C-alpha cells in the first residue's frame, strides 16, 4: 500500500476481462471503465470522509490516477509532500492508527463486482 511518499490502493478491472477486452464490443469496455471510475470515486470520497483532519491537507488531496485506458485506478495520496499519510493509516509509537483508505477500500470491495456487473448488464439490455 505504501511507497516512499505515496499511500495508495489500486482499483482495477478484472484481469481476465482486461485480457479479453480487445474482443469485446467497445460499449462493454466503456461500461467496465465506468464501473472502475465509480468504484475509485467511491473509495476516494469515503476516504475523504474518514481521514483524520488536522490542516485538511490529507482530506483535500486524496486523488485518483488512471492507467491502462481507465481500467486501473490508483486512489490515495500521490505526492511526496503527503508522505505522512502512512503514519495516520498505520500509526506510530506516538500516533494511534486511524486508517481511512484501507477501510474505504474494504467497504467498496463488497460493491465492486456488483458495480461492474450492473454496468455491463445495462449495456447488454
UniProtKB/TrEMBL annotation:
It comes from the Bacteria. InterPro entries: HK97-gp10_tail (IPR010064). This is HK97 gp10 family phage protein. It comes from Streptomyces spinoverrucosus.
Amino acid at each position: 500500500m505504501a511507497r516512499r511518499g505515496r499511500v495508495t490502493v489500486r482499483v482495477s478491472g478484472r484481469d481476465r476481462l482486461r485480457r479479453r477486452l480487445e474482443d469485446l464490443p467497445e460499449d462493454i469496455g466503456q461500461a467496465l471503465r465506468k464501473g472502475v471510475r465509480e468504484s475509485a470515486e467511491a473509495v476516494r470520497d469515503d476516504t475523504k470522509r474518514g481521514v483524520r483532519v488536522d490542516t485538511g491537507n490529507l482530506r483535500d488531496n486524496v486523488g485518483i490516477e488512471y492507467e491502462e485506458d481507465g481500467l486501473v485506478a490508483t486512489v490515495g495520496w500521490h505526492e511526496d509532500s503527503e508522505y505522512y499519510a502512512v503514519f495516520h493509516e498505520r500509526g506510530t509509537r506516538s500516533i494511534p492508527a486511524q486508517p481511512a483508505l484501507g477501510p474505504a477500500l474494504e467497504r467498496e470491495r463488497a460493491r465492486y463486482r456488483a458495480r461492474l456487473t450492473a454496468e455491463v448488464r445495462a449495456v447488454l439490455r
